[in-house]
Design goal:
It is a single chain. The radius of gyration is 24 Å and the shape is globular. By secondary structure, the protein is of the alpha/beta class. The protein has helices at about 40-45, 80-90, 95-105, 120-135, 150-165, 175-180, 200-225, 230, 245-275, 280-310, and strands at about 1-10, 15-20, 30, 55-60, 65-70, 140-145, 170, 185-190, 195-200. The strands form two sheets. Strands 5-6-7-3-8-9 form a six-stranded mixed β-sheet, with helices on both faces. Strands 2-1-4 form a three-stranded antiparallel β-sheet, with helices on one face. The protein folds into two domains: about 1-205, Rossmann fold (3-Layer(aba) Sandwich); about 245-310. Helices cover about 50% and strands about 20% of the residues.
Length: about 325
């Protein structure tokens, strides 16, 4: 896939622009970025569910794209069995053994392939969608948070299946272990730009840390060369420093809140894994997402308070 001078976003707001990006055939590209930076916007744009503001996206010749969105498993045909669903989506001529092998890779083994879709949990339905994509003729998979509804064992099984997959994979994930296992390149969406860091997750972390270190050195060099008068900051009213006891009290409150939210998220996720009703699964998914957002906000605040304590010392 090739993007040239691409701008993405919405009528009222551009999210990122000037995007020049290549994703090579056979790579497994993880799209990363903080919440609100534009990961989903970029993903929706490249699969043509959102019009680009300007620029172009070109896919190579013969590309056949399979898409996994987070709610796709809610619309499966209840009357079919796991095997019947996979057999229907497999290319003509696919051997039964091949279908069973892919089913087994996503943990549908033995009698599990004869289970009706109507009795499958949310996690099992998500696995079934993944298995059907891996069996299909698609040579490119675009996956939006593929591990969101899966337990640890299933995420590991999915990672192994994607590593063995011979096509191209473009995916989003908040699971760092999953990215370490699967990704061969990292596409970061940050501050209005999109950059492809060629290399695995560890190489990406090294590159980002190097950028930070280089930026700090450049800033220090500029400060050392600046005239003494320029170094003198303009007089500003000093912000009153909070009492350390108050800061630590807020930290303790936050830690309790984080633990509570984490427990709630685990409980709701466990319910989601067992849910068979699509509407209930959708509601539980939205609750998990909301709890995750609250957790992130509280954790960011906790980090800021820890820095405030360190500065005071």
């Amino acid at each position: 896939m090739r993007c040239r001078d691409l701008a993405i976003g919405y009528a009222e707001r551009q999210v990122a622009g000037g995007i020049d990006l290549d994703i090579d055939h056979g790579s497994r590209a993880a799209i990363v970025g903080d919440n609100g930076q534009g990961k989903t916007t970029f993903l929706r744009t490249i699969v043509d569910s959102l019009e680009p503001i300007s620029g172009e996206i070109r896919w190579g010749h013969g590309c056949n794209i399979g898409i996994y969105a987070q709610h796709v498993y809610t619309s499966l045909p209840d009357k079919q069995t796991v095997f019947e669903y996979l057999e229907y989506h497999a290319p003509a001529g696919t051997k039964i053994q091949e279908i069973l092998a892919v089913a087994g890779a996503l943990l549908f083994r033995g009698d599990a392939v004869q289970k009706k879709i109507s009795v499958l949990s949310g996690g099992e339905r998500a696995r079934l969608c993944m298995a059907s994509l891996l069996l299909s003729k698609h040579n490119i998979l675009v996956l939006d948070e593929p591990g969101n509804h899966l337990d640890v064992d299933t995420v590991e099984a999915l990672a192994e299946a994607l590593v063995a997959y011979e096509g191209t994979v473009i995916f989003t994930s908040h699971d760092r272990h999953f990215m370490r296992r699967v990704a061969t390149s990292i596409v970061e969406v940050r501050e209005g730009s999109v950059t492809n860091y060629r290399g695995d997750y560890e190489a990406y972390l090294y590159a980002v840390n190097k950028e930070i270190d280089d930026g700090e050195r450049e800033a220090a060099t500029r400060m050392s060369k600046a005239p003494a008068a320029a170094l003198k900051p303009a007089a500003q009213p000093r912000k009153p420093r909070r009492n350390e006891r108050d800061v630590r009290k807020e930290i303790t409150t936050l830690e309790r809140q984080i633990a509570k939210l984490d427990d709630q998220k685990k409980q709701v996720k466990a319910q989601l894994m067992q849910a068979t009703d699509p509407k209930e699964a959708m509601r539980l998914h939205e609750e998990v997402t909301s709890l995750g957002t609250q957790l992130s906000e509280n954790e960011e605040r906790w980090c800021a308070l820890q820095e405030e304590i360190a500065d005071a010392e």
